[in-house]
Specification:
The protein is mainly α. The protein is built from two helices and no strands.
């Protein structure tokens, strides 16, 4: 009864093409690559100051590991 949904291009939302998955064309794949190389995508992180002692850094890491 449920209709299988078609996967869409991550850039332009057109149907994906198996050869370029998860994109529809080499153009969209290159757009995505350019965004990565141009640092438009980033993974957020929390970094402590450079002058932290090793113990302070370990305590900070341990306290944030418990947040998950």
């Amino acid at each position: 009864m449920t209709e299988k949904s078609k996967s869409r291009c991550a850039i332009c939302n057109k149907p994906q093409v198996k050869e370029y998955r998860p994109f529809c064309s080499s153009r969209c794949a290159n757009i995505d690559l350019n965004r990565w190389l141009g640092e438009h995508y980033s993974i957020p992180s929390v970094e402590g100051p450079d002058d932290w002692s090793e113990q302070e850094a370990e305590e900070f890491t341990a306290s944030h590991d418990n947040d998950n």
